[in-house]
Write a structure and sequence with these properties.
Keywords: Membrane, Transmembrane, Transmembrane helix. This is DUF4175 domain-containing protein. It contains 19 helices and 24 strands. With 780 residues, the chain is an alpha+beta fold. It folds into five domains: 164 residues, no CATH class; 104 residues, Immunoglobulin-like (Sandwich), CATH 2.60.40.10; 108 residues, Sandwich (Immunoglobulin-like); 173 residues, no CATH class; 65 residues, no CATH class. Strands 3, 5, 6, 9, 10 and 11 form a six-stranded mixed β-sheet that branches. Strands 13, 15, 16, 18, 19 and 20 form a six-stranded mixed β-sheet that branches. Helix 2 runs parallel beside helix 6, helix 13 packs antiparallel against helix 14 and helix 15 packs antiparallel against helix 18.
Length: 780
């Protein structure tokens, strides 16, 4: 049966979410009304229960921060906001929701909207269907409450945990209530002049750019050179008001015209402690502290080049220098670039210095300076050094401080030298033609492992041994940087026009080569290299030498079939050549720091292990050692080196008239005597011992220690804390905590006693007989 037009309209509006007007329809049964209200209460309770912890969190935070009234206001606002949210959630369960909820039941035949329609607007069949629905609802009450929203529980748990954390978080200790100074209280009770108000104003130097300020207390931390001004109000009017500094000085204050205010000023140069004196007596027991921040000199850093020694040739073009200067206040815009050109070698070195002005860019506290130089335009030639250094100044007045950068050396390598050998020929000292690098050794070892299936055992062992010889040569070359001696040379090195490979037999191995990326630079030639060359040319013409042996071994070695020509016994010119060689050369200007030497030593150890495995035919075992050696070599290359600029001797001029005369008039022997150790001041140790005793510490000892602090102020890390502890003990002699604190501070200033010389143990019977025999032996 079709519905009437009026009922269809009511059903459509009901399903659309519109409640029927009072004249259109209403609730059919009270049971349904109660179920509907229970559903709304469930939804509101869910919102309140799950979101209450987060709503209370702002109020807890306000309470822990000490905002009492604000915490209550935040709590009320949070609870009100939560109540509004719960009411809104309950209102969403309107009549449209109720109809949808009832239509989910199969026994209501999807006709729940008839329960909310106006009875007069229903037809007979619709009225009958409505009566059936009411009977079913009466016979079987419905539970319309929605399920608890358990997906909200993580937020509730988060709020609970956050609230517990706020409650158990340790509250910062409240500042102790200011105690009334007994001295000031006694002065006020007796009607004596007392300090009523105090102000301290600081005016930093103009060059710092800091504005004048009023310090919150009579203590402060100010830049050096700051002018401090005290404004004190004392009532009733005293005769004198002054400041007593811890170094014994007394700064009298000037009375102002009103009679109650006193004014004084001081230029802060050193940290100090002071007390306020009224009529010669302390105004209170408080000791005030003034810390002075010194003005540091500017710091200069070299940005380019990155190395302190740069090798240069005309093909490189211009030389660009970049510096960065920083200061705690300001760096002067102008700087000076000092250029020193060193020409010559050995003792024949001449210097010429040139100064160029530079203008910086950037902020005042961090300026950048750039200079581009043409070395040849400065007169630089092959074999010369150009030393550059930037000098900057800060803006301190009246005496600016100066800062200098590290010296940067530009070196034009000298041309290759030639030495004459006889009258008809010249011998040119050339570098060895070939030298393996550590990376190449690793590559050769890996290639050998790949070729292992195609090689027989003998060839495989020979190639592995050849790589081991390369590893040995590299180890010897690096060992020369540590002062190690050569171990001799393998036989059969190639010539310069036939660079061998590791595939060659062991007798055809190389000796040395130009350095690669990880190979070291060729070492400085030894002092007897020329002698070796001459001996080879003159006395060993008929003797077969292994090619390249002299290049690897800088020493002369004896052979079974020939003896090298030597000078007569005791000839001084042959002693060094025959028995040793020199290591100190004028041009050897690279110094390795201990850390770099340790890295190089570790690399040599790994090379030794790699060499042993390669010589035994186990390149797979040698690769780990070779890779470690390569890593150490890279660290050595990246380590900092110190390059020393060539400096000529600066000897006083010699009077030619006194030369070769043998006269010693006016000359005296100056025996080198050991400097005596200055005696240790026992004041600190005496005070430390006195503080451990039960009796009172003598005032004379405290005075002596205070005077010692003034003399040793620059050597102590915090002299003001020591002086304050001494003054505190003076005012409170019975304070045991003050004694313990001062004793702990004094212990840091006690000088450690020097190590005593241990007496040699007495000789036993056998040793005594030997000593007696030495004494009785006739003197030659």
């Amino acid at each position: 049966m079709a519905d009437r037009p009026g009922a269809a309209a009511v059903r459509y509006r009901t399903l659309a979410g519109h409640r029927p007007a009072p004249g259109e329809g209403g609730m059919s049964t009270p049971a349904l009304q109660r179920a509907w209200q229970a559903a709304r209460r469930r939804r509101a309770a869910a919102v309140l229960l799950f979101w209450l912890p987060l709503a209370l969190l702002p109020a807890l935070l306000s309470w822990r921060l000490g905002a009492g009234t604000a915490a209550w206001l935040v709590l009320l606002a949070s609870v009100a906001a939560l109540a509004v949210a719960a009411w809104q959630a309950a209102r969403r369960l309107d009549q449209a929701w109720l109809i949808r909820r009832l239509n989910q039941a199969p026994d209501l035949d999807d006709s729940s909207d008839l329960l909310f329609a106006t009875p007069a607007a229903l037809g007979p069949l619709q009225t009958l269907q409505r009566q059936r629905l009411e009977q079913r609802l009466h016979a079987r009450p419905r539970d319309l409450r929605p399920a608890w929203p358990w997906h909200w529980w993580p937020w509730a748990l988060l709020g609970v945990l956050a609230g517990v954390a706020v409650l158990v978080w340790p509250q910062p200790s409240a500042p102790a209530a200011p105690t009334t100074d007994p001295v000031a209280t006694a002065r006020a009770a007796a009607g004596k002049p007392a300090l009523r108000q105090a102000r301290l104003r600081s005016t930093p130097p103009a060059y710092t750019g800091l504005p004048p300020a009023e310090l919150p207390e009579l203590d402060g931390r100010v830049p050096a050179g700051t002018r401090l001004q005290w404004q004190l109000q004392v009532q009733p009017a005293p005769r004198t008001v002054a400041l007593r500094l811890n170094d014994g000085r007394v700064l009298p204050l000037t009375r102002q015209p009103d009679g109650d205010h006193w004014h004084g000023q001081l230029l802060a140069e050193r940290p100090t402690l002071y007390r306020i004196l009224i009529d010669g007596q302390p105004a209170d027991r408080r000791l005030h502290r003034l810390d002075v921040v010194p003005d540091r000199p500017p710091q200069v850093r070299v940005l380019a080049p990155e190395q302190s020694l740069v090798l240069w040739t005309p093909a490189n073009g211009a030389w660009t220098l970049r510096f960065e200067a920083s200061d705690d206040y300001a760096v002067a815009a102008g700087a000076e670039l000092r250029l020193t050109l060193a020409q010559g070698s050995g003792e024949n070195i001449t210097f010429r210095t040139e100064r160029r002005p530079l203008t910086g860019s950037g902020p005042a506290t961090r300026r950048s300076f750039v200079a581009t130089l043409q070395p040849q335009a400065l007169g630089m030639a092959a074999g010369d050094d150009l030393i550059a250094q930037l000098v900057v100044r800060d803006t301190r007045q009246p005496a600016p401080q100066e800062g200098r950068s590290a010296s940067v050396i530009l070196r034009w390598p000298p041309p290759q030298q030639t030495q004459a050998a006889g009258l008809e020929a010249s011998v040119k000292q050339t570098l060895p033609a070939y030298f393996r690098s550590q990376r190449q050794i690793i590559i050769d070892a890996e290639a050998l492992l790949k070729d292992k299936p195609r090689l027989d055992a003998a060839t495989y062992l020979k190639r592995s041994d050849a790589i081991g010889v390369d590893q040995r040569l590299l180890r010897l070359r690096y060992g020369q940087f540590l002062g190690e001696e050569s171990e001799g040379a393998p036989k059969g090195p190639p010539t310069a026009d036939e660079p061998p490979t590791s595939d060659a037999p062991a007798d055809d191995l190389p000796t040395a080569d130009m350095p690669t990326a990880d190979a070291p630079a060729p070492p400085v030639e030894h002092a007897h290299a020329e002698h070796t060359a001459k001996a080879t040319a003159e006395a060993h013409d008929d003797h077969d030498h292994p090619p390249g042996a002299a290049a690897l071994d800088p020493h002369d070695h004896d052979h079974d079939d020939a003896q090298p020509a030597r000078g007569g016994f005791g000839q001084e010119q042959d002693v060094l050549t025959e028995f040793g060689h020199t290591h100190d050369h004028a041009e050897a200007a690279t110094l390795l720091d201990p850390q770099t030497r340790a890295l190089l030593r570790a690399a040599l150890d790994q090379m030794w292990q790699s060499e042993g495995e390669l010589r035994q035919g186990h390149p797979e075992r040698a690769l780990p050692y070779a890779n470690k050696a390569l890593g150490f070599i890279k660290q050595v290359q990246q380590a900092e080196r110190i390059y020393l600029a060539r400096v000529g001797p600066e000897l006083p001029p010699i009077d030619p008239s006194r030369r070769m005369t043998g006269k010693r008039d006016g000359l005296g022997d100056r025996p080198a005597a050991l400097d005596t150790r200055p005696p240790t001041d026992p004041t600190a140790l005496a005070l430390w011992s006195a503080l451990d005793e039960d009796g009172a510490v003598p005032d004379a000892l405290l005075d002596r220690y205070a005077r010692w602090l003034q003399t040793a102020q620059d050597q102590l890390p915090d002299p003001l804390s020591l002086a304050a502890a001494v003054e505190t003990l003076r005012s409170e002699p019975a304070c045991r905590a003050c004694r313990a604190q001062l004793r702990a501070l004094v212990w840091r200033t006690v000088t450690a006693p020097p190590a005593q010389v241990h007496r040699r143990p007495a000789a036993d019977a056998r040793g005594q007989r030997y000593l007696d025999a030495l004494r009785e032996a006739p003197q030659p």
